[in-house]
Amino acid sequence: MIIALTENSREYANIIFHIIRIFIPTLTWDDFLNNTSDKAILLEIKVNNEKIYCTLKDNCSFKFDINDGNGEINKAVKIGVYKLLASFLKYKNSPWGILTGIRPTKIVHRLWDQGLNTAEIYSVLKKEYLLSDEKIENLIEITSFQRNNLLIHKEAKVNVSIYISIPFCPSKCSYCSFPSYIISKWENKLETYLDCLIKEIIQVGEALKNNNIVVQTVYIGGGTPSVLTHKQLNRLLKVINSALITNKTIEFTLEAGRPDTIDKKKLEILKELGVNRISINPQTMVDKTLNEIGRNHTSNEVIEIFRLAKKIGFEIINMDIILGLPGEDIDSLRYTLDEISKLRPNNVTVHVLSLKRSSKYDLGLLENSNENLIAEMLEVTKQKMYDNGLIPYYLYRQRQMIANLENIGYCEYDYPCIYNIQMIEERQTIWGLGVGATSKVLLNDEYALENQNNPKDLFYYIENIDEVITEKVKAIYKLYRREIK
Ligand code: SF4
């Protein structure tokens, strides 16, 4: 189905495009703005005398009061369009109502900052955003945990976190939309990439030290950072230790996501060089699915590597799982949950499958997914996590998620991943180093943020490394208001 805007409603295009994609996830921006064919159902929005008129041409229309959006026209238009489409498509309400952003917890933190109490926050989320009771409870639980632990407290603002990108993988997972390079094909570029990355790490570290800025957490992600050889890991981690880490750094994570890239020696190197949190990600423990999604490893390898990591002394180990993988049902999920529960990870990150055009899967999966099944999977997972003594500590959503739901990180009470919280809540500057890494720079006390992106292309990054570093170092000095010596 295609819904297209009438010419005179275009000023609302940006506001409502993602609302419409709640109902029609495959709708393109181009069709939405320009499709004039008979197939398109035209949507018209008029605002007149405190009233908002939303009409689906020749089908149905609604009239709304601006007060429905607490006096904000844009919010009222969103609510109007949401209700119009829900009625037209006979769609039961989305648990996330009109919220389409990927960081709903940020809204709740702002409400806490304004001094609202739990009941008042509940009322705002219900009335102005149309959230379900369950999602409101989730948000209140997670944000309360974060605030009680002072993880997003103002003090976090004077420190920074560092993200380091290793954009290489052993094979391409079918659902993946990250721009990762397959190691067998690009191995000859890896050393040059490391040279550039190390140069960036050293100079950024120096600039931070010159400005007395403490690195609170370091997160090496990808890709699959554990594709690095023993020698490369040694070299990279030693540089990180001397350039970035101090006795005030409290967390050092490396995503050892794919067990087929890990061995005993690598785990020993990580342990010896200060990595205190790793991720070993099964995604599912069903071997048939692992094979179908191109993971090139078995569930047994996950178990073996996890046990080895425990034996070597890693205290915090995360496991990622994905709900909604093709061919999986509630029994597959229960099996996965039972298997990983036997290992007792103290961090589990639960993703709902999200698909972008760059993944190998057909986007039609988004429209044809069984929403009730995915919602049930999330519920079953949540219960299992609580039974295992884990609580939800961060939450985010992605565009184009199956069933329009959310990803949730669970942890034992004392073991949240602080980097994950800082990255989602955006209350601390994060400097991103390496290909495709984004720096999120906090500009003022109101948490205004500026994103600065490193080049996404490996060759471009390598060729322009000096400019990339110069820009970043300048940005660091400018932010902390000290002149470059
Ligand atoms: S391991 Fe991660 S980054 Fe690499 S292909 Fe698979 S999903 Fe993508």
From TrEMBL:
Alphabetical list of PANTHER family matching this protein: COPROPORPHYRINIGEN III OXIDASE, OXYGEN-INDEPENDENT COPROPORPHYRINOGEN-III OXIDASE-LIKE PROTEIN HEMZ
SUPFAM superfamilies, alphabetized: Radical SAM enzymes
GO cellular component annotations of the record: cytoplasm
Boundaries of every Radical SAM core domain copy: 154-392
Record carries keyword Iron: yes
Organism annotation: Desulfonispora thiosulfatigenes DSM 11270
PROSITE patterns tied to this protein: RADICAL_SAM
InterPro entries for this protein: Aldolase_TIM, Coproporphyrinogen-III_oxidase, Elp3/MiaA/NifB-like_rSAM, HemZ, rSAM, rSAM_sf
Keyword Isomerase: no
Pfam families: Radical_SAM
Keywords recorded for this protein, A-Z: Iron, Iron-sulfur, Metal-binding, S-adenosyl-L-methionine
GO MF term (any one): 4 iron, 4 sulfur cluster binding
Protein name: Oxygen-independent coproporphyrinogen-3 oxidase
Biological process terms in GO annotation: porphyrin-containing compound biosynthetic process
Superkingdom of this protein's organism: Bacteria
